[in-house]
């Protein structure tokens, strides 16, 4: 098990969150990858991406309300993606994609307790006073 200070723990999740947002944005605003879209449903990819973003945001901002702060942030990012795609010649606005984003957030919430129990076996945080 890896034990980090709370500040480092949140920072690790914050860096992973920013890296994920960068990768997702590149994939969302570039040309659609043909090989991926043929093998996996686009909606599954949306739900999976927002499941991961929910997990990372929860770790980065663990003291913040999930429903009042994090869900609006996540859904705003999903809507932002769709609005940008609406303006791109090789992409379209899709309400179903946005709903799949929301489904990924809800799926995270359904799974979050066992997910965090498992993650606590790998990485935990301690108070700064324990150093």
Structure description:
With 131 residues, the chain is mainly alpha-helical. The protein has one domain (2-129). Helix content is 74%, strand content 6%. It has a two-stranded parallel ribbon. The protein is elongated, with a radius of gyration of 16 Å. The two termini are 17 Å apart. The model has no long low-confidence stretch (mean pLDDT 89).
Quick overview:
With 131 residues, the chain is mostly helical. The protein is built from five helices and two strands; from the N terminus they run βαααααβ. It has one domain.
Topology:
Blueprint: E1 2-5, H1 6-29, H2 34-39, H3 42-60, H4 66-87, H5 95-120, E2 123-126
Parallel strand pairs: 1-2
Helix pairs in contact: 1-3, 3-4, 3-5, 4-5
**Main sheet summary:** 2 strands, parallel
Structural class: mainly alpha
- Please bin the fraction of helical residues: over 70%
Shape: elongated
Q: Strand fraction band?
A: 5-15%
> Radius of gyration over alpha carbons?
16 Å
Q: What pattern of helices and strands is seen along the backbone? A: EHHHHHE
Domain module count: 1
Question: Keyphrases for this structure?
Answer:
mainly alpha, 2 strands, 6% strand
